[in-house]
Design brief:
9-stranded mixed β-sheet; 5-stranded mixed β-sheet; alpha/beta; 18 strands; Double Stranded RNA Binding Domain; TIM Barrel
Length: about 500
């Protein structure tokens, strides 16, 4: 499609609106209407006049032509932002007319809608913020209710963190195989077996250096999270080496949550779980994604539902007090009835946490690159998430964190559901960007949070394991950036004056 911007530079939000309805389309953004357009033509024009901004958007496809107008009065607070929002809403209304589909999240296109809601509640109160979501941002009543419930749970957890709190993230960017929906920087263990010994040795060194920085600054460790990739793609001795390094270098006496992702059931063994549990880990995530073997085969997931049940039973026997299971709605060849059977099967196990993801059609995933699936099935994905909301609520779970991604089937969301007292702290802190995350390993990103403002800065590690191994000295030099950040944004209010 072609998107023509005239009199403004609101390309970010206008392109996002187009992607809500045309997620597969390549968007060509230009300043003038081309002589020839093959497909959708959208024109978003903003004219500045003495009385304010006059907005005119048009949309054309084959025999369809629509026009929407809006105005923003001069003197409107945050005038430019208001113009951008009204332009996006005018485009949104045109696409609704063209396709006859309203988006349940309206014109909210960001990753963190609950964080957005929290900021409005702080400024206006709950009632006014709720009206704003419904009337201004065009969010459906169901999604507004979900956002409010998530905000209530998150708010209690966010109040428990302190300016000196931080979490440790450890990246294990290896998987036994790559699932077709995945675009993470992860390497199969078969291809990367020669990289792993050096990688683990250097990762232990990075953990040591990171711990020294945290100690120098007086930071307090509250959660540890091993993610990936699939951490349990490592052997039991390799896991023990890493877990021992964390215990040796960091003060774990203040840790409130310790998580290791065991996402692929075909990597889970009793020995690995024993090593993990004995290290003090209290939370594991074992992720079936679906309990349909045929759907698992379709998405390149090299395990069966039976292997998930076996792995889950091993985790229970190992004594983990918190077990999470991830599910995905909108998977190719899955159906609403199939998802119902999956969720019902998970609820029969009564895990402490269930995370319900919506399939994101990421550009680098095999599903997109090899055209193994498309973006159809939006109504079915919406029915799946609605069923999850209804059944999990009825079974005593509550939503405690929520985020969205681009190109999600049906434009839905990802929601973490929890039994009371089992909310995943790390998930809340990283999604709200309310706490410093010191990250180690390939592809990891350290997030540094100003203790007294929303300001966040990032330090990125090398992306790929081979880069991590080859350029490790350069990576360690970047750790100085953590000290530099806290010199500018000290933990003590007195020091910051």
């Amino acid at each position: 499609m072609v998107l023509v911007l005239q009199g403004h530079d609101f390309h970010f939000e206008t392109e996002n609106i187009c992607r809500l309805f045309l997620p597969q389309e390549k968007i060509l953004t230009v300043r003038e209407v081309p002589d020839v357009v093959d497909g959708v033509l959208a024109v978003a024009a903003v004219e500045q006049r003495p009385d304010g901004a006059h907005i005119r958007c048009t949309l054309k496809l084959d025999d369809f032509f629509g026009e929407e107008t809006a105005t923003v009065a001069a003197g409107t607070p945050d005038f430019t932002a208001a113009c951008e929002l009204e332009t996006a809403k005018a485009l949104y209304r045109l696409f609704v007319r063209l396709f006859g589909i309203e988006q349940s999240w309206g014109v909210v296109t960001g990753v963190r809608p609950v964080k957005l809601l929290r900021s409005k509640i702080a400024a206006w109160g709950v009632e006014a913020a709720t009206r704003w979501l419904t009337d201004v941002m065009l969010v459906s009543p169901a999604k507004v209710a979900l956002s409010l419930r998530t905000w209530e749970a998150e708010d209690k957890l966010l109040q428990q963190t302190t300016p000196s709190s931080f979490s440790l993230y450890v990246s294990i960017p290896f998987c036994p195989t790559r699932c077709d929906y995945c675009s993470f920087v992860s390497h199969t263990t078969e291809r990367s077996v020669k990289l792993i010994p050096t990688y683990l040795k250097l990762l232990c060194e990075e953990l040591k250096v990171t711990a020294e920085v945290a100690k120098t600054l007086g930071l307090r460790l509250e959660s540890v999270y091993f993610g990936g990739g699939t951490p349990t793609s490592l052997t039991a001795p390799q896991l023990q080496t890493l877990l021992s390094a964390v215990e040796r270098h960091f003060d774990l006496s203040t840790v409130r949550e310790y998580t290791v992702e065991a996402g692929r059931p075909d990597t889970v063994t009793a020995d690995k779980l024993r090593v993990i549990r004995e290290a003090g880990v209290d939370r594991v995530s074992i992720n079936p994604q679906t309990l349909s073997d045929s759907v698992l085969q379709t998405i390149g997931r090299k395990h069966t539902a039976a292997q998930f049940f076996d792995a889950y039973e091993l985790a229970r026997k190992a004594g983990f007090p918190h077990i999470n299971t991830d599910l995905i709605v909108g998977l190719p060849t899955d159906t609403a009835e199939g998802f119902t059977r999956t969720l019902d099967g998970i609820l029969a196990l009564q895990p402490e946490n269930v995370t319900v993801h919506t399939l994101s059609m990421k550009r680098a995933s095999n599903l997109v690159v090899r055209h193994l699936s498309d973006y159809s099935g939006g109504e079915q994905a919406a029915a799946m998430t609605a069923y999850a909301d209804r059944m999990l609520t009825a079974d005593g779970y509550h939503p405690y964190y929520l985020y969205r991604q681009a190109r999600m089937v049906g434009n839905q969301e990802n929601v973490g559901w929890s039994k009371d007292g089992h909310d995943g702290l790390y998930n809340v802190w990283i999604m709200d960007e309310s706490q410093t995350i010191l990250a180690c390993g390939a592809g990891a990103a350290t997030k540094l949070k100003d203790p007294y403002s929303p300001h966040v800065e990032r330090i990125f590690n090398h992306k790929f394991p081979y880069e991590y191994n080859d350029r490790f000295a350069e990576l360690i030099e970047r750790k100085q950036g953590i000290l530099d950040f806290y010199a500018r944004y000290p933990l003590s209010k007195e020091a910051s004056r």
